[in-house]
């Protein structure tokens, strides 16, 4: 195979109770990437549409992730990467992760799959390091593996795939203001109060239990975050109002990744449509442009097109 086209999905990381360790994959929002072998022994970003992003391979997460993989393989093969961006950078729905994960997935396919999807995660994390100064896996793991992913540990890296109840739907509202992951990390405290930590790991455990038992109500009750959300939500216009609005039809509500996107987790299409409508009606009256998405959880992750 000389070239491949892939769909690189958006992802919702943290999911309130799982800061830096939990994420899920979306199905209806994502980029397209076309990757082909070249004879130049270099990795090039040959085209980017939809967003103004660096074409220099060392400054683009896709280039950095692929180079990390080729270095590990000790291989000199070159690749041309085209990125057709639908996910806006700095949106909080894994724009950088989609490119990093999409690129290493595609190159792995072109090379006859020397790595499993799990083994590709560390290479994609190098792209995240470039984007945010932190090699987190809670977007790249669900983008590669699909469904929900739990990062059990970073050293050594261990990622666990979790089940995803059929009826889950995710509504994402992206206010079109940019918050860089770097900046929204910088405002976080580096220490956690024990009482808050106890509550948080209780919620994370309960959320995972809810995924296995398909207990939708429990999933909703577990989407809580007293550690990061109070600090980051200040950066998100009308966060409180959206939280209240979603309460009637959503299971839970929170910040997607590092924001400014917010997400509402819902049971079934009908509830998701109501939340979508309510968010739309509310935000239309504000002077901030926004994107709104609704998606099932994508069980498979990156797809070959
Ligand atoms: P998100 O959470 O939506 O991924 P980040 O702030 O983490 O947003 O990442 C966006 C940053 O990564 C921007 O500074 C952007 O210029 C940089 N970047 C480099 N290459 C890419 C790429 N291919 N796709 C998206 N962002 C990229």
Automatic annotation (TrEMBL):
NCBIfam families: PRK01212.1-4 (NF002288), thrB (TIGR00191). GO terms for biological process: threonine biosynthetic process. Belongs to the GHMP kinase family. Homoserine kinase subfamily. Residues 208-284 form the GHMP kinase C-terminal domain. Pfam families: GHMP_kinases_C, GHMP_kinases_N. The gene is thrB. It is an enzyme of class 2 (transferase). It comes from Christiangramia flava JLT2011. It comes from the Bacteria. This is Homoserine kinase. One of its GO terms (molecular function) is homoserine kinase activity.
